Amino acid sequence: MRSSDILIVDDEIGIRELLSEILQDEGYTVALAENAEVARQLRNQTRPALVLLDIWMPDCDGVTLLKEWAKSGLLNMPVVMMSGHASIDTAVEATRIGAFDFLEKPIALQKLLTTVQRALKYGDMQANTSLNLDKLGRSEPTRRWSSCRRPTTACCTCRKSASTAAACSRACCSCCPSWTASMCA
After folding, report:
1. Is 151 in contact with 167 (CB distance < 8 Å)?
2. Which residues pair with 163 in a beta bridge?
3. Secondary structure letter of residue 34 according to DSSP
4. I need a surface site. Which of 16, 31, 113, 140 has the fewest CB within 10 A?
5. Any bridge partners for residue 32, and if so which?
């Protein structure tokens, strides 16, 4: 599976094949998973560009899988939930967890294509704008910020031991007054 793939997770073979055929006809590369276990394996191999995830599956429902990915830091791609039986509450819950959108089955062709295009565009924007400490490098300000985020840390300048709360409330400590509490929030 390449990182440009769309992963379709649905226990109904007819829906998997129909969605796959439509998306392949539109030029997308598609990978298929019939249950949460296969979806986990494919997700662990690489990061798909988009996941279309059914809510009601026999082994593990889509919302549980979405929560699992969010909790373990693997929800770094847009996920569109799909269901023919879910309630508005389920759709809202999935969105709160991190789902990009919700499609109700049967899925209209134009709605599918529009949602896929929007989700992929969103995923591209997220990938291009997300910052992390590796991208920022290991400059002095980055090291200071990183050390203030630890549960127990030392002053950025004098290395005196202090708890994060105490360090932040005293601008790390009296020897580095330019480091403000707002930088550690």
Report:
1. no
2. 152
3. S
4. 140
5. 8
pLDDT score recorded for residue 181? 45
Q: Give the model's confidence band at 182: pLDDT under 50 very low, under 70 low, under 90 confident, else very high.
A: very low
DSSP conformation letters of 63-108: HHHHHHHHHTT---S-EEEEESS--HHHHHHHHHHT-SEEEESSPP
Amino acid at 99: A
128 or 42: which carries more pLDDT confidence?
42
Neighbouring C-beta atoms of residue 81, cutoff 10 Å: 25
The Cα–Cα gap between 60 and 128 comes to 32
Q: How far is CA 124 from the centre of its chain?
A: 12
pLDDT band at 128 (very low <50, low <70, confident <90, very high): confident
**Contact predicate 59/35, CB 8 Å:** yes
